[in-house]
Amino acid sequence: xxxxxxxxxxxxxxxxxxxxxxxxxxxxxxxxxxxxxxxxxxxxxxxxxxxxxxxxxxxxxxxxxxxxxxxxxxxxxxxxxxxxxxxxxxxxxxxxxxxxxxxxxxxxxxxxxxxxxxxxxxxxxxxxxxxxxxxxxxxxxxxxxxxxxxxxxxxxxxxxxxxxxxxxxxxxxxxxxxxxxxxxxxxxxxxxxxxxxxxxxxxxxxxxxxxxxxxxxxxxxxxxxxxxxxxxxxxxxxxxxxxxxxxxxxxxxxxxxxxxxxxxxxxxxxxxxxxxxxxxxxxxxxxxxxxxxxxxxxxxxxxxxxxxxxxxxxxxxxxxxxxxxxxxxxxxxxxxxxxxxxxxxxxxxxxxxxxxxxxxxxxxx
Length: 365
Fold this sequence. Notes:
The chain is α+β, with helices and mostly antiparallel strands.
C-alpha cells in the first residue's frame, strides 16, 4: 500500500507544503484524541469536483465514524477563512488545519461551527456523533516572525483604533492619517492588517466603508492591555472613592484648554451598565503630583482606592466628555481599559460592551 503522502500526491492537486501540512495536522490530531479513537486521512475518497484538501475520518472505540471535510492553510487570516469556509459550506462536519491560527481566526472558526487544529497545539474538535470534545491551547502568537506592523500596541495604533471605533463616517487613508496626526504610511500598514483580519471593509483598496468595532476593540485590548497606557500610581483617599471623584473637578482647566484628567474604568462602565458598587477609581491625569496634592491623596503600596495614570499619549483624552461635574473618557477607551485590567475589570468591560452594542447612537459619531 502506498504511504499516505503518496496517495495525496496522486489524488489531490495540492502543493508539497500543503501536503505536508495536511499530514502533520492529521498526526497532531491523532495525538490529541483519547485512547481507542482512530484518525485516518481518506484523500482517495475525494471526487474531482470536490475542491478540498482532504477528508479526515474519525472512528470512536465503539466503531462509530464521522468524516470531516478538510482544508489547509499555513497561517490563514480571518479574511482567508471566508474562502476556506465557503468551500466547506456544504459539509456538516468540517476541519481546518493550519501551521498557526491567530486568536481572531480561532474565534471565527468556533463561531462557524468548524473544527480546527494548528501545529502549535491550538485545537478545538467538537462532534455530536460520535460524541467528542477536545480543546487544547498552543501558541498565542505566530512562532514564525513576520514583517510589518502586526500589533495594535502603541500610541499611534491606539489613535487609529479609537478613530475607527468611535466614528461611523467612511475614511480614506490620508483623511484618517490627518485626523489622528499619524504618518500615512503607518496608518496604511495598520489598515492592511485590519483588512486581512476582516475587521474592516474597504472599497477596493481605498476608503474604509465599515468597521466591526467590537472585534477591533477586543483585538486592541488584547494587544495593548491597560498597564501599557502609561505610568501608574497607587494612592488612597481616606474619605472614600466618591469623595475622590467629587474632588476631580478641582483639576478642571479653563474652557478651551486641554483636559487635565479623565476618569476611566469601573466608574464609566457602572454609569452605563452597573454591576456593583465601585471600589476603585481610575483616572488619567497629566500631572500625578498635582492631582495628589490638590485632591489630598497619599501614596500607598497596599489598600489603594485610586489609581492615577500619567498617559504616554494624549489620545486617551480624545472623545472625553463632562458627565455631571467630572470628565470621563470615551466609552471605547473605558471598555478597552477594563478588558485588559485585572480583577472584575473584564466582567465590567463585557457589560459596557453589551450596552454599547444596543446604544450606538449615544456614543458613535
